[in-house]
Give the backbone structure.
Amino acid sequence: MKRYSKEEMDELLKEKSDQYLLYPSDRVWKNIHKELHPSNGWRYASLTVLFLFIASISIQVKKNELSKGIMNQKDSLYQFISSPSSDLANNTLRLPELFIPVQVSGLSKDPLSIQQLSDRISPAIINERSSAFELPQQIAGRPTLIPTPEVSLTAATPKEEKKHSLSETIDLVVTTAKKISKDIKWQVYGGPSLGYRRLEGQATRNIYQYAVYSLSTNAVFARDVKDVVNHKPALGFELGTAMIYPLSKRLSIRTGIQANYNQYQIKAFSSIPEIATYAVNNSSSRTPLSAVSMYRNNEGLSPATIQNEHYMLSIPIGLDYRLSGNEKFNFSVGSSIQPTYVFANYSYLLSSNLQNYAKEPSLNRNWNINGAVEASVNFEHKGYRWSIAPQFRYQLLSSFKDKYPVKENLMDMGIKIGIIKTIN
Amino acid sequence: MTEEVLLQGCLKNDAYAQQELYYKYSPKMLSVCYRYAKSREDAEDMLQEGFIKVFMQIDKYESRGSLEGWILRIIVHTCINHLKKNKKFNEHVDLAYAGDLLIKEDNIPAIMQAKQVIECIRSLPIGYRTVLNLYAIEGYSHKEIGFMLEIEESTSRSQFTRAKNMLEELLVKKNILQPKKESSKWLSTVKAH
């Protein structure tokens, strides 16, 4: 080991500082990247939460409006029903033989019998054609009976009051549910789609190097993985059923369940069995993953087409907005967020050296989120409402787990044909 | 990719170009941060903060000096600001700390001379270490150091002198520096007793 003199100390410090290099952990770049390029996934998640919040408030407001209407309707039953047999001439008022709870002002909350009521009422004018009778507002300082549309049950006995509340509540709930269900529309839909993917990944040497294990790429000059891959769209389909509830004349909320099949094709070459290696960004392990590959990206035995397939189930939650038209024929736009479960994934992944394709299921993500937008033409025909909608669906998170440096976002473009039926 | 191409990409906020630039300069910059920081984690935090500033202010780079030099200046300033948040550069505090200075032999791996030198620098008190780094390695003047650390120029000079003496002792102990003949005699006398 060379020993420096004190005179050489200044040079020593600079020289050794320049020689000394430290390699940062992966989290540093991740955090820098997050700061410079905030993830859109969180924005969509926030929008979804906001949308659900607004939708739930709208539904609650509509429920309250319905329940008030029902209350008003019921109240009319409690209005005093005039008796055609009233004898005005004798200043007597024969009240119907039923207990009528009315809102009483100025009285205690003790229950009053009809007789007591009739004793207190002075001559009154009865309108036989109306369901209520008019009373003077004040009868010589005595408490005044005021029939009002907003009837409370203060004049009823406690036991009977409770009974009415329970039955009323049950009636209210049932009526509200019926009312809401009357407005719900059910839709069954399906249609073909063209599946493809957006690929992003770094092809340079740096990403795949480790201190003791380094992989060389044969495409160090390629800017991105997508520049070295040859892939094309392929036919898929979508099937689903949805429940549509109108929030207003133009705006509806929809949800349901949907199945999607997405596929795209990769042009490759068949080869003899080789080992495909996947270097992953995992600070706890520096050992890459390996899989057996029967396909090469470039130059193999013979040309081959690989089909990457994804089978998905999702629960779309979305909004539809009618832009123009009427109930019989209209044009609307819609969007939805679709939490998705990939229940089957038959896809080949490109190895880190960009040479081989193999299946590595441990790198596949099972849960994902999709977003979709559509513009639909809706019309009535033979008793059914039809909907034809060109649609674009995009997978918001990568198909692969974060530790795999390559990112894939599936997309589908298709035509959705739906039948809408209101079920009472 | 040439530096010019990387620069153009970073100006367009291209993630790929940013990553390339980061990978190119991060090893050197992390070692700079490591000389100022208390620990590896602190050094990485400084590096992260520094590079975010680099990318956010990349449009202010005027191509007068080298890009590496410009990035280095931002990183150094970030390190200083980071230290300022946690430690006041107080001469009296540093002197008191210097008296209790212990070198943790088990933390200094004997692999390479460069690493040993860096670790010796890091074992100095924070004020001494910072001034030494800025003057002897980064090449700032005492006037500039005084402005950055909000201390007097004379304080910077005296701290540098003390830092250098302390570092010399450490490097002699590590057998990286040759001791003076007189002191080696003195040391051998001490050892004998």
Notes: Chain B has a mean pLDDT of 80. The CA atoms of residues 62 and 70 of chain B lie 9 Å apart. The domain at 1-86 of chain B is CATH 1.10.1740.10 (Rna Polymerase Sigma Factor; Chain: A).
